[in-house]
Specification:
heterodimer, A: about 210 residues, mainly alpha, 12 helices, globular, B: about 550 residues, three-stranded mixed β-sheet, about 50% helix
């Protein structure tokens, strides 16, 4: 049970044990400088959060190009709206809500087309991650590398098949690392609804991934 | 106390209070069913959390900053959805470079983006021309549906009917009239048209990229070859058929196939400083790997391809062609298929259909433009096979008279078809060599576009002359062009046990023993004219290597 408990307690632990950059006090001063028109401060915030925001956006929208566009647009909208940002929420939370609204708008416009791409991650993702492992050998066993890549492929495909409401909470929980309360706040939902959706989403995922459970 | 899966989810997420969590732990120790449910859910969570983290593209921050700066200068840009406004990022990228040398140039680039001609002193280099919708007429082209290429060395890859057919010709003619140039042509097979130079544009290549997934790079390559002085050409590809399938949700694997290209270098545009040989090689190798990995293991084995072979660039399986002239094509095909099954061989066409991956089996035959799987299934069987087996089927087919009129077996290195297997990958690796040569020759960052040389005009004339010769000369055949470059690619000899592992056929001792066999069954009673031609082409006696 030790490993299980480690997972159970890892509310914000992400893949490979890495963690996202967190909001901290420096954000407030950077935001303040942005409000005074200092684009360099804004660039610092972009550098700090671009990977986190992009990763989550990509997993939610499933299309690399769209994720690029949406991430960029989220940052730009944040910059445009930073005058009105009162600091009641943390900067990243606020930024993420902007991104989430953009993603949802995009989803409504695009229908399922772009989300279906989640069935297969775009090439750049793999260039960045799996291809390196596959081709350049940071894992000793080529067979293991291939297996891992295939497994990821199947997981992404399963994630892409989930209904949007379930995919969103699963991504926020298991990829973004938010706890139920944070997810509820971000989505404007009751915690009970979040809990229920995570549950249903995982049951569906489990069904989709049955062949990986063996 | 009974616990359901929702409680287990909360337990996994650490969302239970200490007392409930302890009760769950205790129950898991004693309740086997609950334990099984828990382990399955835990595994599900682990799989999702184990997904690799995707970093933002390195140019994203730069693009954001550049756009932010531009907004300070010009005001906010109207928001568009990614589907409609995908150019924004790339626009941002181009502007990013411009802003580094001054806001004035940035503004100039903005006007360029709006479709105005670019003065010659605007920095040249890789430039992306992006299309989101099919262009089927010059009117649409000039109505702004397609952004006009404005920088030297641009490649415009048109989806829809832009590159061939009447509409394509009209577009090219209109483009030529507008931009000038020594040559404008369309080639139904190669889907390439050229024009220029005028208004600061030296060469535009117009190609159609939606017929064969992956031919966007080929178009770009061709354009690069034709304008080596311009540096790398960046193209856009969109596979309309796959997108349509995606919308319909008909075929998950096709989506996978399609997305390989969506994230390609082509659609992303060139990185700052130009596309390097390493970029291109990584892309093609990756594309090859991604194409194979999602397939069923049996199919992969049958293709004799896996990631190690990709890594070793070892795809030297010879293509062989059997042509069968038959008095009953359906029966002959059945015979061949039964023979293949009895020898534990997989007809790749059928196998691919089984895994619902029609794009995988797309086969294009030289001289039969745009033949897709639906027609190729009708008259062909595609096998991975040994030479001795190939000879065996020839012998057996010859004995099937009067069903079979004649049989020929020959090496066909000009075979242009492929089935997303090693043959295609071999071609793609050939593309790597080509890109290497192109990039190496031209190099990134050439500052200015030289005036066209007389030799270039001569080349145009020669190419135009070739157009009249026939489609065969026009077919872009990287395999044919790149034999020498392929030969220069270092290969690693696969281990015998490894071969055994991937083929699961002990009789295969080396790659040299393997061939890609295409059995084409043709009707012995075609129209008279064709019949004469066929009989001239196909000798009565068999020939084998």
């Amino acid at each position: 049970m030790a490993a299980d408990e480690a997972l159970a307690s890892s509310a914000v632990t992400l893949a490979n044990g890495r963690t996202w950059p967190e909001d901290d006090d420096s954000d407030a001063s950077l935001v303040q400088q942005c409000r005074q028109g200092d684009l360099r401060s804004f660039s610092v915030l972009v550098e700090k959060y671009q990977d986190r925001l992009f990763n989550t956006t990509y997993r939610l929208c499933g299309n690399y190009q769209d994720a690029c566009e949406l991430t960029q647009e989220a940052f730009l909208r944040a910059l445009r709206g930073i005058i009105g940002f009162r600091g009641q929420a943390k900067f990243y939370t606020w930024l993420f809500r902007i991104a989430l609204n953009l993603i949802r708008s995009h989803q409504r416009r695009a229908g399922r087309r772009h989300f279906s791409s989640l069935n297969e991650p775009d090439g750049k993702l793999e260039i960045a991650s799996q291809a390196a492992a596959l081709l350049d050998g940071d894992c000793a066993d080529p067979a293991q590398r291939a297996i891992q890549a295939e497994r990821n492929h199947k997981v992404l495909a399963a994630l892409g098949r989930l209904a949007e409401q379930y995919r969103t909470v699963i991504v926020l929980r298991d990829i973004e690392g938010l706890d139920y309360e944070q997810i509820a706040q971000t989505l404007g939902l009751p915690v009970g609804t979040v809990k229920s959706r995570i549950h249903r989403g995982r049951l569906t995922l489990r069904k989709y991934l049955a062949d990986l459970m063996k | 106390m009974k616990f359901d899966t929702e409680i287990l989810c909360s337990f996994i997420d650490g969302e239970l209070d200490a007392q409930t969590a302890q009760a769950v732990r205790a129950a898991l120790e004693t309740d086997k069913n609950l334990r099984r449910e828990y382990e399955d859910l835990l595994k599900t969570v682990q799989l999702v959390r184990g997904l690799p983290r995707v970093s933002a593209p390195p140019e994203l921050a730069e693009a954001v900053t550049a756009n932010a700066q531009r907004e300070q200068l010009l005001g906010p840009t109207p928001t568009t959805s990614p589907a409609k406004g995908r150019h924004r990022l790339y626009w941002g990228l181009s502007v990013a470079a411009s802003l580094l040398i001054g806001a004035a140039v940035g503004i100039l680039s903005y006007h360029t983006w709006q479709g105005q001609p670019t003065p010659a002193d605007v920095p040249t280099g890789p430039h992306l021309v992006m299309m989101e919708e099919d262009i089927d007429s010059p009117q649409e082209f000039y109505a702004g549906k397609a952004p006009r290429p404005a920088l030297p060395g641009s490649a415009l890859v048109i989806n829809g009917r832009g590159g061939s057919g009447k509409a394509g010709e009209e577009i090219v003619a209109a483009t030529k009239a507008d931009l000038g140039g020594t040559l404008a042509r369309t080639k139904g097979g190669a889907r390439i048209a050229r024009t220029g130079p005028k208004k600061g544009v030296s060469t535009i290549s117009i190609g159609q990229a939606d017929r064969i997934p992956g031919d966007g790079p080929l178009v770009a390559d061709r354009a690069a070859k034709e304008a080596p002085q311009t540096g790398m050409v960046v193209a856009v590809e969109k596979s309309s058929r796959q997108e349509q399938l995606a919308r319909a949700g008909e075929d998950q694997q096709v989506l996978a196939y399609d997305s390989i290209y969506e994230g390609s270098l082509e659609t992303r545009g060139a990185p700052a400083g130009g596309v390097t040989a390493a970029d291109t090689e990584a892309y093609y190798r990756l594309k090859a790997v991604r194409k194979i990995l999602p397939l069923e293991p049996q199919i992969r084995a049958n293709n004799f391809v896996n990631q190690e072979m990709v890594a070793n660039q070892r795809f030297e399986i010879e293509p062989l062609n059997i042509r069968v002239i038959s008095n009953d094509t359906a029966k002959t095909l059945q015979y061949v298929q039964r023979w293949a099954e009895s020898n534990s061989l997989i007809d790749l066409n059928k196998a691919s259909a089984k895994v619902n991956f029609p794009a995988y089996t797309q086969v294009v035959y030289q001289g039969q433009p745009d033949t897709n799987i639906k027609s190729s299934v009708g008259n062909g069987v595609l096998l991975r096979i040994t030479r001795s087996q190939a000879q065996q089927i020839v012998t057996e087919l010859q004995q099937q008279k009067p069903l079979v009129a004649s049989v020929s077996l020959k090496d066909d290195k000009n075979f242009l078809g492929y089935a997303a297997g090693q043959f295609e990958i071999r071609e793609e690796l050939g593309e790597v060599a080509t890109h290497r040569a192109v990039v190496g020759k031209a190099g990134p960052g050439l500052a200015k576009q030289p005036a066209p040389e007389p030799s270039q005009i001569k080349l145009d004339a020669e190419m135009e002359k070739k157009d009249t010769v026939g489609q065969k000369a026009d077919k872009y055949s990287p395999l044919k062009d790149q034999q020498a470059q392929l030969a220069s690619i270092p290969t690693a000899k696969p281990k015998a046990d490894y071969l055994f592992q991937i083929t699961n056929q002990a009789r295969v001792q080396s790659l040299d023993d393997l061939v890609t066999l295409v059995i084409l069954v043709e009707d012995a009673k075609p129209a008279e004219q064709n019949q004469t031609q066929t009989r001239q082409d196909v000798p009565e006696s068999t020939e084998s290597k």
